[in-house]
Amino acid sequence: MPADLTEKTDRYEAMLADALTEATIAVPEPRPLGTAAAEIREMAESYLEDGRHFRENDDPVNALAAFSYGYGWLDAGVRLGLFEIPDETSLFTTA
Questions:
Q1: Structural domains of the chain sorted by starting position, each given as residue range(s) with its CATH number in brackets
Q2: CA 75, CA 92: separation in Å to the nearest integer?
Q3: CA 33, CA 16: separation in Å to the nearest integer?
């Protein structure tokens, strides 16, 4: 059975918020990679805020898209080694 839009939006909002809590920048600024990590984190935070704005304005489709896109940015940063994450987390793709 496909996931309900509300349930999926709730899940992706929580997943992005949790991912932002768990991921810490691995490379300090002002190094170029540190700057890239900070920009990726800012993008993910912005998409979380945007998604919450869409949700407050009864636009769950764009809310889900924003949460998903923000999570994708952060997950890519983890995959590139720009962020450190706890060993026990299952929030990110690390292969």
A1: 5-84 (1.20.1270.90)
A2: 6
A3: 22
